[in-house]
Design brief:
The chain is of the alpha+beta class. It has two domains: 201 residues, Four Helix Bundle (Hemerythrin (Met), subunit A) (Up-down Bundle), CATH 1.20.120; 144 residues, Heat Shock Protein 90 (2-Layer Sandwich), CATH 3.30.565.10. The strands form two sheets. The chain has a five-stranded mixed beta sheet with strand order 2-4-5-7-6.
Length: 488
């Protein structure tokens, strides 16, 4: 199963957090354990060393006091009684026995106790002889046997001190090993944390930052006018991405609005298509009835033996039939699909020739002039259909100017980004806003004899070319029709 980027980052962050917590807990645990171990070992062995030292000192004091009395000679009866250090020594041995747990140390403590008991008994014997008036024998026992017992006890005490010193050194060695082990664990956790951190950076770089940089590079390829406003530059990719996001949101809103408009236009086109099919059927049926009516009216009009009034009425019928047939032709053109034959041509050449032809027969005061772009503008169009549209626009403009008795119709061309625009402008009275809203609506007309289909058909032709036809007008300042075609 492929993990999502969010899941990967969450797992990496969790692993880093877990390693950090475990490392910290391990460090605290090891530190606490080492402190406890060192405190226990050093405290125990220090007490034992102090007890051994105290015992050694007690024995030395006793030996010194006894030897001093024995060597005092004739003043033995006047000398104070010897200090009895047995109680203090036994208390020291008891503390020593309670503090040690090592079998060897306990054996030494027992040996010390036995030696001290013999030492204490010999001390009492020496003092008894000394007080009984036998200093020579007391002196011999003090110098020989008592000194031997002292050295035996002192040796055992020194051995205890050496053993405790060894234990302390062993505790320090173990502590050093624990510290080294702890350092290795910390080093391993640091390396693992660094590895996971590097992996996290790699994932972020390849899954987040690199796509963002790629998106920023693609944004830099956009048109300058689309990417920036006010000429501001972006030195940071994130600033460019934010600007691009704003642009996308703005364009997305525009596209959504265009889609809604296109959807409405599609619905309207579907309704018009259904209406067009119905109108085409009706027009066909009406035309079938008009043909015999026109034929009968023409026959009545041509017969000389018919009364004059009958021939006049037949003439009127014939004219109305012709008008109806003209209307039906427009309806049929509007309702049936437009068939186009595309060819590449110069829009300027096509318009220049068309304007030259339409200069003939203009009313006095009305003129048509061309203002064509100097650059050759190539388009791919159905020249006959495009000419039909432009002629219709120019005729409408000329009719508007004839009602005002004078004016100028100007035909312009200009290039756009991917299209070519043709503008048909007049300086006539303009179109009222109410009329302008319905100007491309089928069968809507303000002319006395108009069908209301000319502009609707023209717009359909331009739409079939992939372009658009729009109108803008300002009352008393003229009207402009803008025809947009795709450029080649």
């Amino acid at each position: 199963m492929r993990l999502k980027l969010t899941t990967k980052r969450l797992m990496l962050f969790s692993a880093l957090l877990a390693i950090g917590v475990i490392s910290s807990m391990a460090a605290l645990g090891y530190a606490w354990q080492m402190r406890k171990t060192m405190a226990t070992v050093i405290s125990k062995n220090s007490m034992e060393m102090m007890a051994a030292a105290e015992l050694d000192i007690a024995l030395l004091k006793q030996q010194h006091e006894i030897v001093s009395r024995v060597l005092a000679g004739n003043n033995q009866r006047e000398s104070p009684p010897a200090t009895n250090l047995a109680d203090a020594t036994r208390e020291t041995l008891s503390r020593f026995a309670n503090s040690t747990v090592d079998p060897k140390e306990r054996a030494l403590v027992d040996k010390l106790g036995s030696t001290f008991s013999r030492y204490d008994a010999l001390r009492d014997k020496i003092l008894t002889l000394f007080r009984a008036g036998d200093p020579a024998k007391a002196k011999a026992l003090a110098i020989d046997e008592l000194d031997a017992l002292y050295h035996e006890s002192a040796g055992a005490s020194d051995l205890l001190v050496a053993m405790n010193n060894k234990d302390i050194r062993e505790a320090l060695r173990q502590g050093d090993e624990e510290i080294q082990r702890f350092q290795k664990i910390i080093a391993a956790s640091i390396m693992l944390t660094g590895l996971l951190g590097f992996l996290l950076i790699w994932v972020l770089f390849h899954s987040v930052f690199e796509p963002l940089r790629q998106l920023a590079r693609e944004l830099q390829g956009f048109p300058q006018s689309s990417r920036q406003t006010g000429g501001a530059s972006h030195e940071d990719d994130l600033e460019l991405l934010v600007d691009g996001l704003k642009l996308f949101v703005s364009e997305g809103a525009g596209i959504r609005s265009d889609l809604a408009s296109s959807r409405n236009e599609l619905h309207q086109a579907q309704r018009l298509a259904a209406l067009g099919n119905t109108v085409a059927q009706v027009a066909h049926e009406i035309k079938n009835r008009l043909i015999p009516l026109g034929g009968f009216a023409s026959a009545i009009e041509k017969r000389a033996d018919n009364p004059e009034k009958a021939r006049e009425k037949a003439h009127i019928i014939s004219q109305e039939v012709n008008k109806l047939e003209h209307l039906l032709r427009h309806i049929t053109d509007f309702s049936k699909p437009i068939q186009l034959r595309f060819e590449e041509c110069s829009i300027n050449d096509l318009l220049a020739e068309l304007i030259q032809r339409m200069q003939v027969g203009l009313a006095k005061g009305v003129t048509i002039k061309a203002s064509l772009h100097p650059t050759p503008l190539q388009v791919r169009v159905d020249a006959e259909r495009l000419e039909q549209v432009v002629v219709n626009l120019i005729r409408n403009a000329v009719e508007a100017l004839e009602s005002a008795s004078s004016g100028t119709v100007t035909v312009c061309t200009r290039p756009q980004d991917e299209s070519v625009e043709v503008l048909v402008m007049d300086d006539g009275p303009g179109i009222p806003e109410v009329v302008l809203e319905n100007i491309f609506t089928p069968f809507f007309t303000t002319k006395k004899h108009g069908t209301g289909l000319g502009l609707a058909i023209s717009r359909n032709i331009i739409i079939e070319h992939g372009g658009n036809l729009s109108c803008a007008s300002n009352p008393n300042h003229g009207t402009t029709f803008t025809l947009t075609l795709p450029a080649v």
